[in-house]
Specification:
Radius of gyration: 22 Å
Number of helices: 17
Strand content: under 5%
Shape: globular
Structural class: mainly alpha
Largest sheet: none
Length: 355
């Protein structure tokens, strides 16, 4: 297994907070020798977007040079959808960059390319945004990325509804397991699973991810769930106009639903590493839009799963505690869903009186 270039670019941005003027000058000279060093170029782009002390005009020209290089050379990369690539309409470089994006779209049917270009245009409130939506996504309306963009465009919150329907049907066939419950686990078991998750996240390629995802879809196990949780844990957040990676969040929805249905008393059910972002969207920097969480429908679905588990086992202390953990986490983002779980918990004895 090896890290993909996509991941290396992401980690460059996440870790690069101290790139200074001298390092930038040295990097620019290095790019003259090897212009395809994308990691070095990513560091520079971050620097010119966040840490640069030049005048605005100099900053814009240099930033545009690096943005346009990425758009011309790797327009299908998720990295090109990052907010580092956004420009306001009033910028002198908005129109030239828009033209580059439209030219790149004319060369390929790539959906990823269209998504990146559309986010750039949507962020700038382009006057032709609805026309571009129709043109770009005519044959891909059911893709999770397109559904997420449709939510943004139309102020709706339904992009995960199809996934919810699939999970609801699949979960009916699954039975609860009583392994990995916290009273019996202690720290050793928790650390073992966390180690497996972190190791997979650090080393897995996109092909490894696809294979484990297929394995989990056909025959879900704790091991495959842990690996997928590890892979997606640091990938579902995104510095884009959407605010998250809808593909990764969709995968996480399936994982969290499985945990609640199959392992509701487990150590996984009260650990944000496995239950995020649904157990606390704001903690994961997924904020409400117009007062409504973009994850409201998945959280409502997961809340109903918790309520069903509480009704099935009204006297189980660990299960009730895990449900309370979820309810407390969603209080700020989806208070009505939190209240549903809280009201169900009030129907049973206090936690300290349960077995």
């Amino acid at each position: 297994m090896c890290m993909s270039n996509e991941d290396s670019l992401r980690r460059v941005i996440n870790s690069n907070r101290k790139f200074d003027d001298a390092a930038a000058e040295e990097a620019e000279r290095a790019l003259l020798i090897n212009s395809f060093d994308s990691e070095l170029r990513a560091r520079l782009l971050f620097y010119y977007s966040v840490g640069c002390k030049e005048s605005y005009q100099q900053f814009s020209e240099t930033r545009f040079k690096h943005i346009s290089w990425f758009v011309e050379n790797v327009p299908d990369s998720k990295f090109c959808g990052d907010e580092l690539f956004y420009l306001p309409q009033e910028s002198a470089f908005f129109k030239p960059l828009k033209d580059i994006w439209l030219e790149q779209i004319s060369k390929s049917e790539s959906l990823a390319r269209r998504v990146n270009a559309f986010m750039f245009l949507l962020n700038a409130n382009d006057s032709n945004i609805h026309r571009y939506y129709e043109e770009f996504f005519q044959s891909s309306r059911h893709d999770i990325w397109v559904l997420a963009l449709d939510d943004l465009l139309n102020e709706s919150y339904s992009c995960f509804d199809a996934r919810i329907a699939i999970e609801a049907k699949r979960l009916k066939r699954l039975k609860r397991l009583d392994c990995c419950s916290e009273p019996n686990s202690a720290k050793g078991e928790t650390q073992k699973w966390l180690k497996e998750a972190v190791e997979f996240e650090a080393l897995a390629s996109t092909q490894d991810f696809a294979e484990i995802l297929e394995e989990f879809s056909v025959n879900p196990t704790i091991s495959s769930m842990v690996k997928l949780s590890g892979y997606t844990a640091n990938r579902f957040n995104a510095n884009s106009i959407i605010g998250f990676d809808p593909q990764m969040v969709s995968v996480r929805l399936g994982l969290v639903a499985w945990i609640i249905q199959v392992l509701p008393k487990s150590i996984f059910a009260n650990n944000p590493y496995f239950t995020g972002p649904f157990s606390g969207p704001i903690d994961f920097q997924i904020y409400p839009r117009n007062g409504v969480s973009p994850l409201i429908n998945p959280i409502d679905f997961l809340s109903d799963l918790w309520i069903a588990q509480l009704q099935k086992s009204p006297g189980e202390k660990v299960l009730a505690r895990n449900a309370a953990f979820f309810s407390n986490g969603i209080q700020l983002s989806t208070p009505l869903q939190a209240k549903k779980i809280s009201d169900e918990l009030k129907k049973r004895p206090p936690l300290e009186k349960m077995s």
